[in-house]
Design brief:
- The chain has about 375 residues and is of the alpha+beta class.
- The chain contains 9 helices and 20 strands.
- The chain has helices spanning about 5-15, 65-70, 115-125, 130-140, 155-170, 185-205, 215-220, 240-245, 250-255; strands at about 25-35, 35-45, 50-55, 80-85, 85, 100, 175-180, 210, 225-230, 230-235, 260-270, 270-275, 280-285, 300-305, 310, 320-330, 335-340, 345-355, 365-370, 375-380.
- The strands form 4 sheets. The chain has a 6-stranded mixed β-sheet with strand order 6-7-8-3-9-10, sandwiched between helices.
- Strand 1 and strand 2 (about 35-45) form a beta hairpin.
- Helix 3 crosses helix 4 (about 130-140), helix 3 runs parallel beside helix 5 (about 155-170) and helix 4 packs across helix 5.
Amino acid sequence: MGDREIAAGAAERAAAAPGAEPPHLALAGIERRFGAAVALAGVDLAVRSGEFLTLLGPSGSGKTSLLKAIAGFEPPDRGTVTLAGRDITALAPARRNIGMVFQHYALFPHMTAAGNIAFPLKMRGLGREAVRDKVASVLALVGLAGYGERLPRQLSGGQQQRVALARAIVFDPALLLLDEPFGALDRQLRAQMQVEVKALQRRLGITTVFVTHDQEEALALSDRIAVLNQGRIAQIGTPEDLYRRPATRFVAEFIGEANIFRGRAGVVSGGTVEVRLESGAAMRAALAPGDRSIHYGADLALVVRPDRPRRLAPGEGADNHVAGLVSEALYLGETVRYRVALDGGGDLVLRGPAEGARFAPGTRLELGWSTAEMTAVLWG
């Protein structure tokens, strides 16, 4: 049996798990090399029907290579791509029934908005009347009724983005790919387009794979996020899963802001672990769900997000506690970001509401948080 058959079998077994709905998009064992450089190192991924899934990672992590493997622009060296139950690994991009929106829109400058949107329909051989009706319908859907006769240069950036989106969905694709589609927009328009695209995706129920390097954007838009690092998926889960329960130190550091303490594992029991820090202090943290890798003596990273520590009243206890002096206070509108120089060495970042009591630099704080609010992962 060849590599492709083995990979396909793995995907089928995953999809056939008890109670699991077969994935709408399945990637199995996807590998891609450029000479000695490994872009994708055996990626497996299942995307549910109607799901909005984001590929997130730093430059060079493999997210763009993975999107190109799905689209057919760069077929994988090994592995399979299955869409709606059909193996499309060897199909040309035009035969995959996939809509795609790029960062720079890729509109035909000599065609009107309606002409750009009509192009994929004409390529599929639809009649003139059917094309006209579909184009009018999708223009209205993206809020551009009455703009059909304008050329791209006569449209704003946001309007061009809507035309590109309309062109990608007008032929009812089986999958929508969004390759950093908001990167060329200013901050305010970017936020507006995020809301519109998410609402449209929900309304149409179209399975969507989105690529971005913007963590905030990924957290806001996604049903699930696949975090890539060095050609592999480091973790996949809901935005809250990744933020509150990172599975690796890389994910903890890449998603949002994190305070990370280093220590050695003591007793592991009941989904928690006792840890002795380098400073000698003791802490207790929760394990990531299903984590069986942590054992006595393991080198650990303890992760607590800046919104979790709270000021302790005199005599009040907590599962974990630290003390130190506020060295910095930055007003950020709704929140204030504090840096606390800890008694045992190192810093802790704390975020609190801008309304109410604030801590001036030099203020001494006793801070605490629960076991459940801190996650232990392997340091390496």
